Amino acid sequence: MPALPLDEAGKYVAGAYLVFVTLIVIYVAIIGAKIGRISREVDELLRVVEERGE
């Protein structure tokens, strides 16, 4: 016998999936922001190196 009747467990399963998807979206946003920052820093470093080379 399940701990919760199946008709009541559906709400908790849906809630768990919602929390999981929300965490994944937050994680992807954080990683995207980091990649954007690193890309800007690399561009700045390339600009500095090109200026010194001239």
Provide the low-confidence segments as ranges: none
Termini separation (Å)? 77 Å
The secondary structure category is mainly alpha
- Averaged pLDDT: 90
Outline: rod-shaped
Write the H/E string, N to C.
H
Number of domains: 1
- Kindly state the percentage of residues in helix: over 70%
The Rg value, from CA coordinates, equals 23 Å
Largest sheet: none
Q: Please, how many helices?
A: 1
Work out the strand percent.
under 5%
What does this structure look like?
By secondary structure, the chain is mostly helical. The protein has one domain (1-54). The chain has one helix and no strands. The relative contact order is 0.07. The protein is rod-shaped, with a radius of gyration of 23 Å.
Structural descriptors:
mainly alpha, about 55 residues
Write the layout of secondary structure elements.
Layout: H1 6-53
Describe what is shown at a glance.
This protein is 89% helix and 0% strand. The protein has one helix and no strands.
